[in-house]
Amino acid sequence: MKRKWDIPTNLASHPSVRNVMMYLADICGDRIITGQHTQTMAMEELNLIREVTGREPALLGFELLSYSPNINMQDTDEECMKEVRENRDTLTRAWEWAGKKGLITFTWHWFSPMGGHSKSFFTENMDYDPWNAVTPGTPENKALLSDMDEMAHLLKPFADKGIPILWRPFHEMDGVWFWWGSRGPEPAKRLWRIMYERYTSLHGLNNLIWVWNAERKEYYPGDDVVDIISRDMYPTAHEHTSRAAEYEAMTQIPGQPKLVLIGETGVLPDAKAIHREKVGWSSYMTWSKNYCLTEEYNRFEVLREMYNSPYAITRDELPELY
Questions:
Q1: Angle between helix 44-53 and helix 300-307 axes, rounded to 10 deg
Q2: What pTM did the predictor assign?
Q3: Which of 236, 254, 224 is nearest to 297 (CA)?
Q4: Is it the case that residue 242 has pLDDT exceeding 90?
Q5: Of the chain's two ends, which shows fewer C-beta atoms within 10 Å, N or C?
């Protein structure tokens, strides 16, 4: 039977996109790709993993928050600005990782395109209305498209080189804590479709693999604009399982089968259990800072076991996909 879940929704996708999706499909239910989020130029998490395990994650996540065009430098606080300063120029690290042929995923804590203060990607710090943002001709819509276009220009060099990106915009879409989810599913789904259409048709970002990130079906924008589905989870510290129930719930969301990832996690899954139970997560990405750098959530012994498991894939084990 011909499978469809490794076929990109964008028919103009670069061959590297299909290569990555085919690989994710081939390993699912058997092995899982190791992944780690980073948010600073220092990439302390990557250094810690090398030190503890002697290996590197196959997938590295990069944060784009400092590339937001509308960071309010006049009305902010030191916590916000420290995060912005530490994050500046991290795309150079993504280029270095691409040179090593590692898998890349981008997360964008998008400061609200208009107004807001401090960390204005949080709903509590802005009054930007997503309904106005998806209404053509409004000031909010013009600001939205301007921000989208600026980010597209930053992503275009990756597209020109055929470097595949697991693109996870509007993450945790079904949460009211971020501005894009603050008014419910309808404007959130429209935001997704606006970006998809603009980035594929206008900007030709044919290297993007579109990763939807939420848990609730009513926020799903449609099979025609989503390549992969994912969810974030922060289980009890040191609780390492296959997360089979969460996986099964995710498979019920799309109309046709889709690859499924753990977009973010605070606690490492159990690769052996994933293999034994044939649970289809293709990859996971541990969150940054204390989730990786301390043993508060994951003991270093467990981290070492994961990176040396025959059922977990590290960077040295990746085939050349691009």
A1: 80
A2: 0.98
A3: 236
A4: yes
A5: N
> Which two structure tokens, joined as six digits, stand for 275?
């293999």
Tens of pLDDT, residue by residue over 243-301, are 999 999 999 999 999 999 999 999 999 999 999 999 999 999 999 999 999 999 999 99
- Annotated catalytic residue within 56, 172, 215, 246: 172
Tokens coding 317? 């084990």
Extended beta strands in the chain, E state: 32-33, 35-38, 59-63, 103-107, 165-167, 208-213, 228-233, 259-265, 281-286, 312-313
Structure tokens at 19: 């290569």
- Rounded Cα–Cα distance for residues 311 and 322 (Å): 23
**Which letter, b or e, does each residue of 49-66 get, where b requires 16 or more Cβ atoms within 10 Å of its Cβ?**
beeebebbbbbbbbbbbb
Give the residue carrying structure tokens 């594929």: 200
Concerning whether 172 is annotated as a catalytic residue, the answer is yes
Annotate 65-88 with DSSP letters as a single string.
GGG-S---SSS--HHHHHHHHHHT
Contacts of 208 (CB under 8 A, 6+ apart): 10, 17, 155, 159, 164, 165, 167, 199, 200
Phi, psi of 222, deg, nearest 5: 130, 145
What DSSP character marks residue 198? I
